[in-house]
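Quarterly update, task 2.4: guanosine-5'-monophosphate-bound model.
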Amino acid sequence: MAGECIFCKIAAGEVPAEKIYEDDSLIAFLDISPISPGHTLIIPKRHYSRLDECPEEVIGDLASKLGLIAGAVAQAGDYAGYNIFCNTGRAAGQVVDHVHFHIVGRHPGDKVFDRWPSGRYEEGRMEEMAGKIRKTLSGP
Ligand code: 5GP
Ligand code: ZN
């Protein structure tokens, strides 16, 4: 619900945040509980709960600033790299239901996200999944 949403309140200036960038469409500010110093959140000013509910132009606005802001975070924190991610749904760890991208600066050997549980497809499963996704993308 937009009225109760903490990120809508930050976008409206009703709740303070350490803002680092703002334009007509979006705002970027520091996460209050950082994974690493400079951990940044980029949000659209308008409320959308999930990335897949966001209009393309809003995602375009957000995406167009990711490189600029991530580069500035990396430079400010002297990071060798960064992760950018968008938790979507409780299963993926989304806590605030207002679309946001995280930018997290990384140092070599920092052990953040050091487990990447990659698996293998059973015979035929990869083609089956790709077919289902293609069908959804091609519409009804
Ligand atoms: P999620 O798990 O939904 O992807 O992440 C939400 C993020 O928002 C968390 O990393 C959390 O620390 C951050 N956060 C939650 N409330 C506030 C707040 O009031 N101010 C700021 N700056 N960050 C917040
Ligand atoms: Zn909101």
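Highlight for this quarter: The pocket of zinc ion (ligand 2) is lined by residues 2, 5, 7-8, 47, 98 (CB under 6 Å).
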